[in-house]
Amino acid sequence: MKKILVTLFIGLSSLVINAQEDVETILTSGKWFVESVQEKGQQPEMSADKNDEWIVYHKDGKAEENVFGDVSSSSWSYDNTKKLIKVTGAQTIFYKIIEVTSEKLIVELIEDMNSSDNVMVTYVK
Fold first, then answer.
1. Where in the sequence is the signal peptide annotated (predicted)?
2. What is the pLDDT of residue 112?
3. Residue 7 to residues 11, 18, 21: CA-CA distances in angstroms?
4. What are the C-alpha distances in Å from 116 to residues 21, 82, 95, 97?
5. CB 97 within 8 A of CB 29
């Protein structure tokens, strides 16, 4: 019985590690362009030019972000338990992952962890 529990625990642990690696692999797979931004209760606002706003997550924990021609560097980390991307630069911002695939990333931008006034951002490759 003890062997079965140990084997089950090791198997589940490797699944959690693989899930985190998979999300991190997807996040670091290229440049993510803002497709739309949606404030709570509003219709999504589509990006006029997807090349104006993007983010790149690098495997070394660094990130680059372009907001209307203003490129900034920061660092990032991913918390698989909470499904949060933490980006630290001039300020610290959390992105809660709502959906992630190889071509689409939907996050909830959380500037204040206690606020319900958050913004949904959809990124595409």
1. 1-19
2. 63
3. 6, 16, 21
4. 29, 17, 14, 16
5. no
Task: Report the C-alpha gap between 66 and 56 in whole angstroms.
Answer: 9
pLDDT for position 21: 56
> Which residue in 51, 44, 41, 60 sits closest to 106, CA to CA?
44
CB 34 within 8 A of CB 49: no
Scan for tokens 């529990």, then name that residue: 5
For residue 8, pLDDT over 50 is answered with no
Query: pLDDT tens-digit profile of 42-92?
Result: 777 777 776 789 999 999 999 999 988 899 999 999 999 999 999 999 889
DSSP 43: -
Separation between Cα atoms, residue 25 and residue 41, nearest integer Å: 32
pLDDT tens per residue, range 105-124: 999 998 766 666 679 999 99
Q: Percent helix, strand, coil in the chain (nearest 5)?
A: 25, 45, 30
